[in-house]
Amino acid sequence: MMARMNGAIVGHGRDPHARPIAVFDSGVGGLTVLHELLVRLPREDFIYLGDTARFPYGQRSPEEIERFAAEIAEELLHRQAKLLVVACNSATSAALPSLSARMRQTTLGVDVMGVVRPEALRAVAATRSGRIGLLATPTTVASGAYEQAVAAVAVRGPVSDAGFDHPGG
């Protein structure tokens, strides 16, 4: 699924600030992230790509998800995105480091953001006991991405996964 929000796809010769922010997910769950971005950044243009052809990502290998994310990023760069938002936990966990490295190699100045760190920060802020539960796909849990993100903000206490065996992305 590909959608343009608030205008046309911007060409190469335009002001970089006028380019759209690209959001992608393995399906339609990332539309909640897009909604929040639309609310908080009403003057921005957005492109959303939901990879429903290869959904779900949650039980795929990290290498396969990384390949999918790289393909999607290339498509979104072709559409002149100024920022990539990976709105999928599995793709963030498996591909964010390689996507960030790839974007540093381009001359386009495109940053990449995932959802794990912001979600971990909210969980740390919300916990009273220092314990955080994680309801996630096997790929996300196995990556250790949430444990690393929580540790980076110095919370005390373990992150406990719920053993959720959701097939989604």
Question: How would you characterize this protein structure?
Answer:
The chain is an alpha/beta fold and 169 residues long. Helices cover 41% and strands 17% of the residues. The strands form 2 sheets. It has a 5-stranded mixed β-sheet with strand order 1-3-2-4-5, with helices on both faces. The chain folds into 2 domains: 2-114, Rossmann fold; 117-161, no CATH class.
CA-CA gap between termini? 15 Å
Largest sheet: 5 strands, mixed
Q: How are helices and strands ordered from N to C?
A: EEHEHEHEHEHHE
Helix content: 40-55%
Query: How large, in whole angstroms, is the Cα Rg?
Result: 16 Å
* Topology-level CATH name of the largest domain: Rossmann fold
Q: Strands of the largest sheet, in order across it?
A: 1-3-2-4-5
The total of beta strands comes to 7
Count of the domains: 2
| Strand residues, percent | 15-25%
**Name of the level-1 CATH class of the largest domain:** Alpha Beta
What class do helices, strands and sheet pairing give?
Answer: alpha/beta
Roughly what is the average pLDDT, rounded to an integer? 85
Low-pLDDT sequence parts: 1-12
Q: What CATH architecture of the largest domain would you give?
A: 3-Layer(aba) Sandwich
How many distinct helices? 6
Backbone shape: globular
